[in-house]
Amino acid sequence: xxxxxxxxxxxxxxxxxxxxxxxxxxxxxxxxxxxxxxxxxxxxxxxxxxxxxxxxxxxxxxxxxxxxxxxxxxxxxxxxxxxxxxxxxxxxxxxxxxxxxxxxxxxxxxxxxxxxxxxxxxxxxxxxxxxxx
Length: 133
Known about the structure:
This protein is mostly helical. The chain has helices spanning 2-15, 21-58, 65-73, 75-82, 87-127.
């Protein structure tokens, strides 16, 4: 995203009067940081929700509820919980948790890709008529 940030900063600072370039730069940086943090929070929450749901649906039978709760918290929790199970049940829990994690990651990546394409399309439409100074 470095080229995008560079272009966006150039557009923002270039459109501001010279005496307000510092304030425009500060707003650009604040917006960039806020957008990044918000995107991570939203995509991370979606990925976690999908992980937990997928693991609950595909957890191996016979896993104690407290072990399953630990496994549903994080992938690391699932790997740690699997150590306390028999070899077969532990391997099944590890496979299920990895599959659930990948499912959550795929959905998050797909959403991020769609959002990036929509933002690019929006920018192309709205900024298409801008001529450099």
